[in-house]
Amino acid sequence: MASAYGPDRASLRVCVAVLALAGSLVACGQGVPGPQDTAAPPASPTGTSGTAAPDEDATTPGTAAPTAPGATPDGVTAPATQPPGPGPGATTVTPPSRTPPPQARQEQLPARPLVWIVSAFDGRVSVVDPASGTVAAERSVEATDVAAVTVAFDTVWVAHEAGVTGLDPHDGSVTATVELDTHQGPMGAGSSELFVAARGGGVLTQIDPVTGQALSTADIEPEPAGVAVLGGRVWVVDFFQGILQSYDEGDLRPRGTIDVGSQPLDVLAAGGALWIASNADGTVIRVDPASGQLSTIDIGGGPAALAATDGNLFVLDQRSGRLVRIDQATGSSTGEVGVGFVTVDVAVGAGSVWVLREDPGTVLRIDPSSMRIVAEIELGGSTPALAVG
Questions:
Q1: pTM, entire model
Q2: 58 in helix, strand or coil?
Q3: Geometric angle at alpha carbon 331, from 245 and 338, rounded to 5°
Q4: Tens of pLDDT, residues 183-192
Q5: Cβ atoms within 10 A of the Cβ of 171, count?
Q6: Vertex 198: Cα angle to 193 and 202 (nearest 5)
Q7: Phi, psi (5° rounding) for residue 12?
Q8: How far apart are CA 239 and CA 385, in angstroms?
Q9: What per-residue string of b and e applies to 63-101 under the rule 16 or more CB within 10 Å gives b?
Q10: C-alpha distances in Å from residue 232, one per residue of 246, 289, 298, 311, 375
Q11: C-alpha distances in angstroms, 145 versus 4, 123, 231?
């Protein structure tokens, strides 16, 4: 559901998938034209190069563009970065301690790893036990308009309309609440901080996972579709602008932008590189974080979400209803399986690949070796995101 604060990533993915099925792909709520449906040829690397903002410490062949007034050393005009401390969209934590009161504790959950699925409208968090293949428990973040979930720093983090809530992965009780001004969306974990991008608010917030305090913020483009951390930088991909923005992991100082195709819906750090799901182009783009060099893998459909493990990249292709496995080293397709349409997220863990259907909420469990569906777990409701940990 697209709120007044802008569509979340799952809403963009669902809208893209539904409109693609209707035969005309138009960016949700913005009137930006996309490509018509095409047949889905086998994935193959094309090895093209793109215009990029190289690392300021790296030596890149070619003639460097002159630095414009007010630009960063990367040659890109820098948006303002807020000073450390609570900035726009950031306040102090409630409660200040990561130890919840005794009455907030819940019954112990099964042994990890677990699959965590969030419900968009009622703040419900469903917990799937991979050992039994069933929903083992349900918890709540007492928030609406939930957009994203990730597991990092021994905490399950849920982004929603009022900020970010942390859950204890052992019993699901609330351990931290970070109150932010704007609807929050995609998240990424760095070496010691959590980063969350606001939907429609144009703010990237750095959070201390130990205290739960918002440390600093930076301006970003208003429709972030994914956040990843690699090479000492935070990378944010924007859906409507089709750019990959980078910021220093320590202080969120802007470091440059890279054009990454039309309507990107996800960014993933894996195998020492960044991977972009370029939905309208039907490609997955590999980005070298040091040089900014690009290479393209043609999926032939509509890539929407990415996951990786054991040298493999798993691409959720909404337009053809497939999950495609790509060898990260060669860029070649090594397997695929039909998963249906209106799928919104994919994750790996517990020896499986997990694909999420948005409405009604259903989780597919897939064997990563055989690429066969081995289980289907019904959740109900509208489920925009999942994570494993």
A1: 0.78
A2: coil
A3: 95
A4: 999 999 999 9
A5: 16
A6: 110
A7: -60, -45
A8: 17
A9: eeeeeeeeebebbbebeebbeeebbebbeebeeeeeebe
A10: 10, 10, 29, 22, 38
A11: 11, 8, 32
